[in-house]
């Protein structure tokens, strides 16, 4: 860290603590996670006090914090507020270095947790439930609180890897990612995580090969299109048989949205 200034050191320390707390899969009420979070925010607070902001930035920051606190009050979840504080603290921080640091830490923690669960150092929780068309299945968390967390953490690792190595994507590294994805799926049986990784790897590989013919500005419409898709499929759920099949692939997500609209 000899080449880093005070702002970078403080923010990286904050980010490392938050990343460790999130990556090890502890519950929100866990004492260790609370200690880690408190230490992280001490570093962030110091970083914010030594960073210079313009008047316009201060106004924007105040608005964002109000939105974050309101969201936290309504949802009782700190995810949005935490994301806002992280974005605010990222001023003067090189984001690619941050993503690279994030990838390295998450990979180490991820496979350490899996290895520890396989040798019996930490619990490997089992979940038995009914899956339509298959019957009862047994899912394993490999050290995480839930099998879905096991696969969602792998998804984040894959996204970070693709972002940082987009121009270097090839058949070999994509095949390795898909092989790891299949290995983890044999334990997690998380269809959403499994298919999401397959899709993002294939799409990213294809786009990296035909990038000269793509207008990347179209990707800014993905989020609003996704929101519209969610609403429309939920609204029409009980009117078209194809939506039942799609809902089965999406493990009941459309049905849950449908219930919210009733």
UniProtKB/TrEMBL annotation:
<feature type="transmembrane region" description="Helical">
    <location>
        <begin position="107"/>
        <end position="124"/>
    </location>
</feature>
<keyword id="KW-1133">Transmembrane helix</keyword>
<feature type="transmembrane region" description="Helical">
    <location>
        <begin position="57"/>
        <end position="74"/>
    </location>
</feature>
<feature type="transmembrane region" description="Helical">
    <location>
        <begin position="194"/>
        <end position="211"/>
    </location>
</feature>
<feature type="transmembrane region" description="Helical">
    <location>
        <begin position="171"/>
        <end position="188"/>
    </location>
</feature>
<feature type="transmembrane region" description="Helical">
    <location>
        <begin position="144"/>
        <end position="164"/>
    </location>
</feature>
<keyword id="KW-0472">Membrane</keyword>
<feature type="transmembrane region" description="Helical">
    <location>
        <begin position="31"/>
        <end position="50"/>
    </location>
</feature>
<protein>
    <submittedName>
        <fullName>Uncharacterized protein</fullName>
    </submittedName>
</protein>
<feature type="transmembrane region" description="Helical">
    <location>
        <begin position="218"/>
        <end position="237"/>
    </location>
</feature>
<feature type="transmembrane region" description="Helical">
    <location>
        <begin position="9"/>
        <end position="25"/>
    </location>
</feature>
<feature type="transmembrane region" description="Helical">
    <location>
        <begin position="80"/>
        <end position="95"/>
    </location>
</feature>
<keyword id="KW-0812">Transmembrane</keyword>
């Amino acid at each position: 860290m000899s080449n880093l200034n005070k702002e970078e050191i403080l923010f990286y320390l904050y980010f490392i603590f938050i990343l460790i707390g999130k990556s090890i899969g502890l519950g929100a009420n866990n004492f260790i996670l609370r200690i880690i979070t408190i230490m992280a925010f001490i570093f962030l607070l110091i970083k914010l006090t030594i960073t210079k902001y313009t008047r316009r930035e201060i106004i924007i920051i105040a608005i964002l914090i109000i939105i974050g606190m309101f969201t936290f009050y309504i949802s009782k979840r700190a995810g949005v507020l935490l994301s806002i504080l992280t974005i605010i603290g990222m001023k003067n921080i090189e984001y690619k270095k941050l993503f690279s640091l994030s990838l390295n830490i998450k990979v180490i923690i991820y496979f350490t947790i899996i290895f520890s669960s396989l040798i019996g150092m930490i619990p490997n929780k089992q979940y038995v439930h009914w899956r339509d068309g298959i019957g009862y299945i047994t899912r394993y968390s490999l050290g995480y609180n839930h099998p879905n967390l096991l696969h969602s953490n792998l998804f984040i690792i894959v996204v970070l890897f693709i972002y940082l190595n987009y121009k270097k994507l090839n058949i070999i590294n994509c095949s390795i990612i898909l092989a790891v994805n299949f290995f983890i799926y044999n334990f997690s049986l998380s269809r959403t995580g499994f298919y999401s990784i397959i899709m993002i790897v294939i799409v990213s590989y294809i786009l990296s090969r035909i990038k000269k013919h793509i207008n990347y500005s179209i990707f800014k419409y993905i989020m609003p299109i996704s929101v519209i898709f969610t609403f429309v499929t939920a609204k029409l759920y009980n009117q078209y048989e194809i939506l039942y099949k799609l809902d089965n692939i999406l493990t009941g997500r459309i049905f849950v949205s449908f219930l919210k609209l009733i």
